[in-house]
Target: DNA-binding MarR family transcriptional regulator
Amino acid sequence: MTQEQYSKYSFLLDRTARKVKQYAQQQFKSGDFDVTVDQWLVLKNLSENEVLSQTELANLVFKDHPTLTRIIDLLCKKGYVERMPHPQDRRSFQLHLTESGVSKVSSLRPEILHIREKAWENLSPHDFDEFKRILDTIYQNLNGESLDQ
Amino acid sequence: MTQEQYSKYSFLLDRTARKVKQYAQQQFKSGDFDVTVDQWLVLKNLSENEVLSQTELANLVFKDHPTLTRIIDLLCKKGYVERMPHPQDRRSFQLHLTESGVSKVSSLRPEILHIREKAWENLSPHDFDEFKRILDTIYQNLNGESLDQ
DNA sequence: TTTATATATTTGTCACACTAACTATTGGTA
DNA sequence: TACCAATAGTTAGTGTGACAAATATATAAA
Model:
């Protein structure tokens, strides 16, 4: 990449990511989902893993630890998640969904899939592969040390 | 898009956009640039347009008005930007770079181009076209009313 | 055992995004 | 003229993101 024009990828990327989050958040709100987009991501990952520590969960969702602490705080207040003490390690928590959290996830999952489809109109499965390849390449280019995933 | 897997585009997009911003911000910091990534975007657009109102600038950088108000506040504090009263419309400001702002932009521009190159390693000009096409399609799919740009 | 180091999580600070509500001003219209 | 809707910008509240520093606990080394 030598031409100045290519540096616009960062602007396009940021603009589109914000639009995707904004659109989803509006739909979440008009549907009274009672969670934000980021809170949903955390709930979804908890629903797909029986028990997780905050560190494990942070690595799954690619958020840093302070951010995750605060999201978990909110989800606990809303009654969807519980922090249980780790039996061997008193520094750590085991996170799991409450009953209310489980039913929240199962009721929201199809609606959110539907919301997510909107962005992909006029695009093909092949586009998705290209999109994923390019995004992953960018991510790895900038991901100095930890080659996770 | 019917398969559930495709809904991961939102996760990939968000993750990569955050990584791109984080990487740039780290480089900005280690180079003592004295501005954030978003402040740079605003400075750059001001340098490419003689005079802008806040509303015009907000449309250029795709940020909302409260966000732009605060970024301008910070850039004024740092002495890079000035708000001048609009001669005809007392509700509005005319924004322009100070001398300090002009020299800041010209000194940072080449360094930032260099930083931006890193993400595009292993990718081709054709990849850029595809990337841009897909991001723009997503953006337009979600951009209900205002078909700006 | 004591010390040193590493790990898990929290707290504090600053910046940004979005919403809603608010002030001031403008321009059109009854 | 008086009213009213639209526009420019600000302020406040909540959530998120990055980073640094602090706390508590665990583990390894001396």
